[in-house]
Amino acid sequence: GESVGLHLPTLSVQEGDNSIINCAYSNSASDYFIWYKQESGKGPQFIIDIRSNMDKRQGQRVTVLLNKTVKHLSLQIAATQPGDSAVYFCAERVRAQKLVFGQGTRLTINP
Amino acid sequence: EAGVAQSPRYKIIEKRQSVAFWCNPISGHATLYWYQQILGQGPKLLIQFQNNGVVDDSQLPKDRFSAERLKGVDSTLKIQPAKLEDSAVYLCASRPLRQGRAEAFFGQGTRLTVV
Q: φ and ψ at B108, to 5 degrees?
């Protein structure tokens, strides 16, 4: 079936530390996996994506890791800043069309 | 480039009333999505258009929800009649057809409260 879930609903980290947000997926027909950030009162904002034939992709302060063997996706945020506080969603693009979202992880930053 | 525009931003209606939401996608984006996001949950896809054709509406409650994308640009989503459980944020997103990118651009959403 199509489902994308997250291991933890909330994550609290110290400012300056690295954050790791995890996600499990179940659909083998997905060609892309995407991370979105959603701040209060706003729509989801694209962070980074990774093709299903890759296992790692880096952006500015973010890294996405894909482990197809265990169907696991993670988002690593380096040197977490107060502006990183938000809900983070993983999503998978199924059969090159449909975007299926997980439940989300709320990231809070402690000063 | 201008982002995805949605209106209204907020709407409060009584149950059994009707409501409509409007979305103007980014110019040139062929794919348009409508999502329902209930508080504390991830967005759930209601319907996906490619140009003016429906690609997926498997999770659209068709007895009360309808959507159209005439001329393949703007789109409207309607609920008639509304139920209390329809209270949610309705998000519109768009994406170009080009290969190699999965990014969809979201609007700010319309927050619907049914009382």
A: -75, -15
Query: Which of helix, strand or coil describes residue B22?
Result: strand
DSSP B45-112: EEEEEETTEEEE-TTS-TTTEEEE-GGGS-EEEEESS--GGG-EEEEEEEE---TT----EE---EEE
Q: What is the pLDDT of residues B39-48, one digit of tens each?
A: 888 999 999 9
Q: Can you read off the two tokens belonging to residue B61?
A: 């409650």
Cα(B97)–Cα(A97) distance, rounded to whole angstroms?
A: 10
Contact B2, B27 (CB under 8 A): yes
Q: What is the mean pLDDT of residues B20-28?
A: 96
Burial B62-99 (b: 16+ CB within 10 A, else e): eeebbbebeeeeebebebeebeeebbbbbbbbbbbeee
Residues 81-100 in A contacting B (C-alpha not used; CB under 8 Å): 89, 91, 93, 97-100
Check if A106 contacts B (Cβ < 8 Å): no
**Which tens digits make up the pLDDT trace of B86-96?**
999 999 999 98
Residue B48's beta-bridge partner residues? B33, B56
CA distances from A47 to A59, A62, A78, B2, B105 (A): 9, 8, 13, 19, 11
